[in-house]
Protein: histidine kinase
Organism: Parapedobacter indicus
Amino acid sequence: MKGKRTKSSFDSLRAYWLELTGKPGELPRENRGFNVVSLYVMLLLAILIPLDFYLGLWEIAIGLIVTEGMIITMFFLSRYRGLHRAGLIVYAIYSYLLVIFTYFYNGGNAGPALYFFLLTYLLQIAFTAQQLHWVWTGLHLILPVGLLVIEYAYPSVVITTYDSKSSRFIDLTTSFPIIIICVFAATSYLRKAYERERAAAELRARQIESQNKRIKSQNRLLQKANREKIELISILGHDLRNPLNAMTGTLEILTKEDLSSNMKKKLNGELLIAAHNTSALLNNVLAWVSGQIKGINPLLTWVDPTMIIERVLDVQGFIAEKKDITIQLNTRKGIKVLADAEMLEVIVRNLINNALKFTPQKGTINVSVVEDRAVNECTILVRDDGVGMTDEDAKNIFEGRIQSTYGTESEKGIGLGLFLCRELTIRLNGTIWVESELGKGSVFFLTLPLYNGGKPDNPAVLFSKENVSHASH
């Protein structure tokens, strides 16, 4: 309990001291330094004045009283008016006059005046502007030596006021502790100020270093993103130019050449597939670019995944017919998931398109919707018996590695579709993964939360057959 009271008293004194001298963030260091010096000098004079009266040094005591009043005035002007620079100059000049006066009226070199030159020098060097240091140094070399020379040449100008040996002893023994205490207080203040500034400088250095690391990391990410975008543009330009050239050539043949009906049908089918693949590629790129520019913000409502799947198959079905691929649909209507309808359509379209791309002719694709009320989840599975992939490819397939890929019928892609699926799935609070074995096909799993309440707008209107073509855009 006693320790707590002592700490509380110390904290109160420290707070009062900071209130007198000014807080570090409130006043400049030079201003606070002058306030500290003023307080110490006021305390010093408060001790010396009664001592000089006791020793019979009336002239010096009266001079110190005048000095005390001047110091108090300068302190208030510095602390509450910010006039510390002028105060420092006045203090320096007055201290010289006071010490010179004390020297001649208090025993010359036999008194303590010369020792006070050391104190005034320390205070002036510590708390005045650096350009004045040479001035103070020169004056403190000239004045003491000059006083000693004057006393040596004209000893009568020095007044010996000590009436006994004990008076001089008391004067000197009280002056030295005062000087030592003032020197200690000034150097302690400077040391603490230095430590605070060093700690602040180290903190700023750490902050700058941390900021530089963040900037370097951001630069690396930006450079990586720029490289990926440049690579994407390069691959996209190549993979769009070739099919467009092929479609243009096919249209020229259909227009200019006299072909048989079977040949025209074949070319029309190839033209349709090329246009579909190019459209799918563009849709993925545009969705990715839109997400990069505007951000991807889902509008969550209840969605029937079966309706989404049927809608996608209405558009993708002709590719399955072209490759003679059987699509088995194992779902039931009425299951509701919490999702964004357009985002879910993009995911499902890419998963089915990926399965069609890597499944050979006469293959089978199975699309299932499984509801699990126990964990409040719905899982959409897209299973194919296509070419499959290695464990390494399965691990990295959603990472968005931009490169040209080719399906079983040379269908082109750039690896963006499945990366887009992962990005959209994250925003729908779902999970997506793949299980695959090389040569034996792949199974893609998309898990979404079930819808459990609320009254959002009925999405069945959006997914009606009449609106399929319009909503796909």
